[in-house]
From TrEMBL:
Name of the molecule in the record: Cu+-exporting ATPase
GO biological process, one term: copper ion export
Transmembrane segments: 127-147, 159-180, 192-219, 231-250, 385-407, 413-436, 728-747, 753-775
Assigned keywords, A-Z: ATP-binding, Cell membrane, Membrane, Metal-binding, Nucleotide-binding, Translocase, Transmembrane, Transmembrane helix
Family: Belongs to the cation transport ATPase (P-type) (TC 3.A.3) family. Type IB subfamily.
Pfam families according to UniProt: E1-E2_ATPase, HMBD, Hydrolase, YHS
Organism from which the protein derives: Edaphobacter aggregans
Length: 782
């Protein structure tokens, strides 16, 4: 059998295989452990499972029918799957704990089900029952601290020890059992974690105390005080267990709030829709029964059930919950509507065009969920530290025990034990592990509420460093709805014939300017005739036969190719270009027939957004296929740099040139025509409007095609990365300071020792503090 190790990055959609030993689902692309057996590759969650398989493969290869399940993670599967927020490659079909870090698994896909987390219920029950049993232990401890030792008047010291044993045992071994399970699992999987330390720490204190009660005579004098008594640490073991349980409960409650963004999105979709049958009757049906083509009535104040277009009625629709647009949008026949948005005071009849997983809302939920499980590059710092952190703490604990045993005050072994336990308990690799994932989860969820869809954590991290923003002109800086502004006929030609011929030819074109010519011709009541022998020349224009005449529509290069001379229209063309108009020439049977000017209005929001971006030190560069004069006019109005005469295939070259200069470049475009350029940029930003958004393009997608979204996205990136750095700083400082203090570094100078109970409290709240800091992103100002 051949064993392989794979350390690839986990993709958003992976092929899953089931570990034949433990049954865990393992992403094939990222499985660290695999083996060839009987002509088949088997994948494993850890080395221990691999070794069990290699020792006796026949015992496990009978599960062959369950092993190679090619299930896309992103596709819905029966039941709920669970994953670890710190290790997204771990996937199971039931609740439990992560075999790598021990953290409680959470649903892979959030649901709007309000059912309580079974892990939270279990931990809470253990906490409350453990508290009831621990309070008497604390009473005994405080009694021993009093000079008169009042309890000893009623019960002797030996009996008191047995009472403590009876009270502490269910707390440590029942309430704290999940920690021992996870600690053992970490050893089995050779992935030591926080629960390894907790299990060893509480187990040591408890086991020592049990032996001290059952067979006290075996301990030497170095364990005894001046009166010859042995110290018992039942209350320390119990209180540590309770404080860790409290930390787990608080952490689970806080983590549930990190998925509130997805739950809020899920709640947007209504449960039912009012479907209009072919005979005109109406009935409320479950949303799952709606199919493409169904007619649906939306009454005032109701939610739009799915994506589609209005066919009757007029109303305003609040789309803020999806696009971030605060002003309601007027809707009438022909206008698109988005599922989950809220109808205003009018009644609309719509036709369903996208249902189920194809709707914009479903795609947003899917995208946010996938983004929350990606890892930012900065996570590598925490991963490196975590890889040696627990072994280092175990070594520090051992050194602490040895040093205190040799140099500590009497009883030296008792001091050594309690300080070694404190070192084990105070260390918290979990805070390091949570620092990045929690901030990413909250940040991407917050972005979704603002109409900013983050595709992966890397885009969120890199966007903070962007110093150059490249913008496509049409549809990004401008409205993307060009309109005809002028028709100038050459001598011997008629304006009406020019426009009619050009519009007829453009009817076969998909160029953005074609819609402007066609719309203008139809407004004037012109009848468009079919064109034949249609040819398109990229970067030049189009030509074909219209009513027996060979028509050409394009730039000067096309006219030169045709042999049509348009020098007589040069002054008019240049004047229009200086005003920002795009000029195209018309040729008829080899002669210059005239020119047509088209303008695409600049979005009102573009001016404000560009000023904000420039004020933050970002250089803005506009790229366009327009010639230099037109591009200069538009760029001058906006106050940006520009690159003109750039074909779609050349936009990527502009990005490459900027990156070669050491710039960190973001490119914003429509996400379809600009896809190659988006891929070349450090961060690709797909601009979209409503259901036309190209969610699959770019690292970041703005649902609303508004440049102000780029400003908000950058602020989100800055605040998220600042939050991550705060989390990492706190986690590093906490552990760097906590471990030496627990080891007793302050004792020689100040006589201070850290109780393991205080260490447990500090450890528990360190993780909660990291999560609480991440949750601040939910209300951060963007």
């Amino acid at each position: 059998m051949d064993t392989h190790h794979n350390h690839a990055v986990v993709p958003a959609t992976a092929t899953l295989s089931v570990d034949p030993v433990c049954g865990m689902k393992v992403p094939v692309e990222t499985a660290k452990w695999s083996v060839e057996h009987s002509g088949k590759t088997w994948y494993f969650c850890g080395q221990s499972c691999l070794k069990k398989f290699e020792a006796n493969p026949e015992k496990y290869d009978g599960t062959q029918q369950h092993t190679q399940q090619s299930t896309p993670v992103a596709e819905p599967t029966p039941g709920i799957e669970y994953t670890c927020p710190m290790h997204p490659e771990i996937i199971r079909d039931k609740p439990g704990s992560c075999p790598i870090c021990g953290m409680a698994l959470e649903p892979l896909t959030a649901t709007d089900d309000d059912t309580a987390n079974p892990e939270l219920i279990s931990m809470s029950r253990r906490l409350w029952i453990g508290t009831v049993l621990t309070l008497p232990l604390l009473a005994i401890m405080f009694s021993d601290l009093l000079p008169s030792h009042p309890l000893h008047n009623f019960i002797n010291g030996r009996s008191l020890g047995w009472l403590e044993f009876a009270l502490a045992t269910p707390v440590v071994l029942w309430a704290g059992w999940p920690f021992f399970e996870r600690g053992w699992s970490s050893i089995v999987h050779r992935s030591l974690n926080m629960f390894t330390l907790i299990a060893i720490g509480t187990g040591s204190a408890y086991l020592y105390s049990v032996v001290a009660v059952v067979v006290p005579g075996i301990f030497p004098a170095s364990f005894r005080d001046e009166q010859g008594d042995l110290g018992l640490y039942f209350e320390a073991a119990a209180v540590i267990t309770l404080l860790v349980l409290l930390g787990q409960v608080l952490e689970l409650q806080a983590r549930s709030r990190t998925s509130s963004a997805i739950k809020a999105l899920l709640s947007l979709a209504p449960k039912t829709a009012r479907r209009i049958a072919a005979n005109g009757t109406e009935a409320d049906v479950a949303l799952s029964e709606i199919q493409v083509g169904d007619r649906i009535r939306i009454r005032p104040g109701e939610k739009v059930p799915t994506d589609g277009s209005v066919i009757e009625g007029r109303s305003s629709v609040d789309e803020s919950m999806v696009t971030g647009e605060s002003v309601p949008i007027e809707k009438s026949a022909g206008h698109p509507v988005i599922g989950g948005t809220i109808n205003g005071t009018g009644t609309l009849v719509m036709q369903a065009e996208r249902v189920g997983a194809d709707t914009l809302l479903a795609q947003i939920i899917k995208m946010v969920g996938e983004a929350q499980r990606t890892r930012a590059p900065i996570q590598r710092v925490a991963d490196k530290v975590a890889s040696w952190f627990v072994p280092a703490v175990l070594l520090a604990s051992l050194i602490t025990f040895i040093v205190w045993s040799i140099f500590g005050p009497a009883p030296s072994y008792a001091h050594a034990l309690i300080n070694a336990v404190a070192v084990l308990i105070i260390a918290c690799p979990c805070a390091l592990g949570l620092a990045t994932p929690m901030a990413i989860m909250v940040g991407t969820g917050r972005g979704a509420h603002e109409g900013i869809l983050i595709r992966n954590a890397e885009a969120l991290e890199v966007f903070e460093k962007v110093d150059t923003l490249v913008l496509d002109k049409t549809g990004t800086l401008t409205e993307g709805k060009p309109r005809l502004t002028a028709v100038i006929a050459a001598q011997g030609f008629d304006q009406t014939n020019i426009l009619q011929s050009a519009a007829s030819l453009e009817n076969s074109s998909e160029h953005p300017l074609a819609s402007a010519l066609i719309a203008a011709a139809k407004e004037k009541g012109m009848e468009l005739t079919p064109a034949s022998d249609f040819q398109s020349s990229t970067g030049k224009g189009i030509r074909g036969l219209v009513q027996g005449r060979r028509i050409g529509v394009g730039n000067a290069a096309l006219m030169q190719e045709i042999g049509a001379t348009c020098d007589g229209l040069h002054d008019e063309a240049e004047s229009l270009r200086k005003d920002g108009h795009t000029v195209v020439f018309i040729a008829s049977d080899g002669h210059c027939a005239g020119l047509i000017a088209v303008a695409d209005p600049i979005k009102a929001s573009s001016f404000e957004a560009i000023q904000q971006l420039k004020s933050e030190g970002i250089r803005v560069v506009m790229v366009t296929g327009d010639n230099h004069t037109t591009a200069a006019a538009v760029a001058g109005k906006l106050g940006v740099d520009f690159e003109s005469d750039v074909s779609p295939s050349q936009k990527g070259d502009v990005i490459k040139k900027l990156r070669a200069q050491g710039k960190v470049v973001a490119m914003a475009g429509d996400g379809v025509n600009d896809a190659p350029a988006l891929a070349q940029a450090n961060v690709g930003i797909a601009m979209g409007t409503g259901t036309d958004v190209a969610i699959a393009a770019g690292g970041i997608t703005l649902v609303k095609g508004d440049l102000r979204g780029i400003v908000r996205a950058r602020r989100l990136s800055q605040r998220t990365m600042k939050n991550i750095r705060q989390n990492l700083f706190f986690a590093f400082v906490y552990n760097a300071a906590g471990v030496p203090i627990a080891a007793g570094v302050l004792y020689p100078a100040f006589g201070l020792l850290l109780s393991p109970m205080i260490a447990a409290a500090a450890m528990s709240f360190s993780s909660v503090s990291v999560i609480a800091n991440s949750l601040r992103l939910r209300t951060a100002r963007l």
